[in-house]
Design brief:
The chain is mainly α and 258 residues long. It is built from eight helices and five strands, in the order ββααααβαααβαβ.
Length: 258
Amino acid sequence: MFIIHIKETNTFISTTTETPPHFPSDSLLFLSNKFQSIFRITEILIFSAMNLFGFLLILTLSSIASAYEKFDSHLLPRPLILEYPNNIEIRFKESDEYLQLLCSSWRFAVETNNLTPWKTIPSECAGFVKDYMTGKAYNFDLEMVSKEAGIYARSIQLVGDGNDVWIFDIDETLLSNLPYYADHGYGLEVFDGHEFDKWVEKGLAPAIESSLKLYEEVLGLGFKVFLLTGRSERHRSVTVENLRNAGFQNWDKLLLRY
């Protein structure tokens, strides 16, 4: 600290450095050392606190990580009733509805001959075809066709000249090959002529009942009956035997393929 001391002389002014009367130099030194010590202790405490905080933070994170790794959800109580999304049933219904429409459309295109030549049914329609062939729908369709054919046969006035002929196909018209197709995926497999011939040679094809009724009705009306088939001539005897065993009698001609 600088003190300006003016002596009572005429022209002399001197500037000296003195210690304030109430703060002797020893006291200032003591206070300075005291403050330095306090600052140093504070600095040490802050540094120690920061280190301790860092250690606790690492310890906490390690504990959390360890607990997460050892966590087993199976140990927790589990609900007795599982709640599924509300729209899951709707999705299944929409999927079933779409498949039903797709396969129905494909079937209609086949029956109206609007498809290019095909070898197998669509794989996604295997269940649809099986349900149709083994359910009530297939028999209902057969009965409907036979009923309409019978109405037409009764509407014709026969003149008795022997020229009124009713022509039946054999496979899938009089005789059913459903047992064969059941063993071959209901059309999922590519048709194998050799395998089908083996089935024909067994002579076990059952009659289509609605067709058998129509067959007997047509004979009773006085029509001649011709049977026309794509079966080979070498299968004539087994075909005749199969037809008779299934209930078909008294046809006029059986035409086979050479």
